[in-house]
């Protein structure tokens, strides 16, 4: 592997990949860069690449269309898709085009590196070892592709002692394993001992198992037995199982496989130790309302709410493992960018450039595969943000908190106003008013009025004193001014309120 073509219409994404992947150690000596599918196809025809990394959605010619054109004249080129659209149709298109990798946005540089490394290993590998095992795995791989020669494969399976049938029922499981390279081989061996007719092929920490039965009910029973066996293994906590639906006929095995690939995306939400079945109506978009409470608390300076909001958001995501994984990842990316942007905005001079550098987010997300890992990253970033704000003196949050304490302790002083409050917290009146309204959501005058009215309500009900005395005790020198303010806030006069005994 020498020449690589990178196609993506986002300059920041291209820069992040080009600067963040150790190309030399992967055997890549030449990199071509394209801004869309048409540009990529032109470059590929001039200098045929060994590997193509392409975004799925690009202007003029998208990644799927680019791959189809490349396959016509360069059938051996290795294709790695990157995309923010991991819905079922795009995943299936990637499978049909023989993609060797599919990386979702926000891009994980480790995933890109591993995908390119696998391409190099495939190119350097020569047939060897157990010939029959290689033949068996080759046939299994061909079974998983649309348009497979079912009759020819059925005859080949018979020669290997595997009893398949053109009209039998089939089901595909994909088992993702956490551990060293020996673990998938060990699991494949154990599976083979339990179900000798199970066709297994595995690579990159995955086992693909194709089960068969003469009847649909028999296949479902076998599926349940296999899942029970997986749960009973001592290292079951290191396995995640994605299960496709039963498919009738050898020619339709690829359908169950494609379903299992879609279900495999749910690993992000569940992590290891779980099994997820393909669901026909899966792939829901993550609702935008999930992130709004967090962003509102951040914008409003209510930093004490941020960690609780983050945990609640993650709990909501965990309840529905069939949402689009890339949408969930993008949600986390937006929250991380919002934290970083807010921190920069509060600290940087007004005329300085703001926003994260191109590689920061890629580095932060690199190596994180599950919702729990993304949650840890968000919580760590949130805590760091809060700690930084607490250390930065004076912060807007602390100034507003100090102002609230003054209001609470001095509301009975008729001279307390916005100007005197600003003097006590050592800010200008306009600046304090702006910070207070942004943080609390109400003006200083509104908060002071609300507090004075609430305090006077209790006095009106609990004490039999003149209205003038009530007014004086809550910061009004004039009874009429107090009565007007009370009625403006409550809709009734102080006397009427006392008469009804309202609270």
Description:
The protein is an alpha/beta fold and 503 residues long. The chain has four domains: 3-124, Rossmann fold; 131-277, Alpha-Beta Plaits (2-Layer Sandwich); 288-388, no CATH class; 396-500, Arc Repressor Mutant, subunit A (Orthogonal Bundle), CATH 1.10.10. The protein has 23 helices and eleven strands. Helix 4 crosses helix 10 (253-264) and helix 14 (325-347) runs parallel beside helix 16 (371-391). The protein starts with a strand and ends with a helix.
Please give a handful of descriptors for the protein shown.
503 residues, alpha/beta, 4 domains, six-stranded mixed sheet, 23 helices
Give a quick account of the main beta sheet: strands, pairing sense, barrel closure.
6 strands, mixed
Q: Compute the gyration radius: what is it?
A: 32 Å
CATH architecture title of the largest domain: 2-Layer Sandwich
- DSSP strand count: 11
Fraction of residues in β-strands? 5-15%
Task: Estimate the mean pLDDT confidence.
Answer: 81
Helix content: 55-70%
- At the first level of CATH, the class of the largest domain is Alpha Beta
- Quaternary arrangement of the chains shown? single chain
Distance between the termini: 79 Å
CATH topology of the largest domain: Alpha-Beta Plaits
Number of separate structural domains: 4
Write down the overall geometry.
elongated
Query: How many helices?
Result: 23
Can you tell me the residue ranges where pLDDT is under 50 for at least 5 consecutive residues? 124-132, 348-356
**Which class of secondary structure composition applies to the elements?**
alpha/beta
């Amino acid at each position: 592997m020498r020449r690589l073509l990178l196609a993506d219409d986002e300059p920041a994404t291209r820069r992040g990949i080009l600067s963040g992947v150790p190309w030399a150690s992967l055997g890549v000596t030449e990199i071509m860069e394209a801004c869309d599918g048409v540009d990529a196809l032109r470059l590929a025809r001039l200098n045929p690449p060994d590997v193509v990394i392409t975004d799925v959605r690009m202007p003029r010619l998208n990644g799927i269309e680019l791959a189809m054109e490349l396959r016509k004249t360069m059938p051996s080129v290795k294709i790695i898709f990157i995309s923010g659209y991991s819905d079922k149709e795009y995943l299936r298109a990637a499978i049909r085009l023989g993609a060797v990798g599919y990386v979702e946005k926000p891009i994980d540089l480790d995933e890109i590196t591993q995908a390119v490394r696998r391409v190099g290993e495939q190119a350097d590998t020569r047939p060897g070892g157990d010939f029959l095992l290689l033949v068996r795995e080759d046939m299994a791989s061909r079974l998983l592709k649309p348009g497979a020669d079912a009759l020819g494969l059925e005859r080949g399976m018979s020669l290997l002692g595997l009893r398949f049938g053109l009209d039998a029922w089939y089901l595909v499981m994909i088992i993702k394993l956490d551990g060293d390279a020996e673990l998938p081989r060990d699991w494949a061996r154990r599976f083979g001992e339990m179900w000798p007719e199970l066709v297994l092929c595995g690579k990159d920490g995955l086992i693909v198992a194709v089960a068969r039965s003469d009847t649909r009910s028999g296949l479902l029973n076998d599926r349940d037995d296999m899942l029970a066996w997986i749960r009973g293994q001592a290292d079951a906590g290191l396995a995640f199982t994605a299960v496709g639906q039963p498919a009738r006929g050898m020619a339709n095995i690829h359908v169950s496989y494609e379903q299992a690939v879609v279900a495999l995306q749910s690993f992000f939400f569940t992590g290891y130790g779980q099994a997820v079945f393909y669901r026909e109506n899966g792939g829901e978009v993550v609702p935008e309302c999930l992130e709004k409470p967090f962003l509102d608390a951040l914008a409003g300076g209510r930093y004490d709410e941020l960690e609780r909001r983050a945990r609640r958001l993650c709990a909501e995501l965990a309840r529905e493992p069939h949402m689009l994984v890339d949408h969930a990842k993008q949600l986390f990316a937006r929250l991380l960018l919002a934290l970083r942007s807010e921190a920069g905005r509060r600290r940087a001079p007004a005329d300085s450039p703001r926003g994260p550098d191109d590689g920061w987010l890629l580095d932060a997300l690199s190596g994180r595969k599950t919702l729990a890992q993304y949650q840890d990253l968000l919580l760590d970033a949130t805590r760091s943000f809060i700690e930084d704000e607490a250390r930065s003196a004076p912060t807007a949050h602390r100034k507003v908190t100090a102002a609230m304490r003054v209001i609470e302790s001095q509301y009975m002083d008729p001279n307390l106003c916005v100007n005197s409050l600003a003097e006590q917290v050592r800010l200008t009146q306009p600046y304090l008013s702006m910070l207070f309204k942004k943080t609390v959501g109400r003006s200083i005058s509104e908060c002071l009025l609300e507090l004075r009215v609430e305090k006077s309500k209790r006095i009106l009900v609990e004490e039999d004193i003149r209205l003038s005395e009530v007014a004086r005790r809550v910061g009004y020198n004039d009874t009429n001014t107090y009565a007007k303010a009370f009625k403006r806030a409550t809709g009734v006069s102080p006397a009427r309120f006392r008469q009804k005994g309202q609270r």
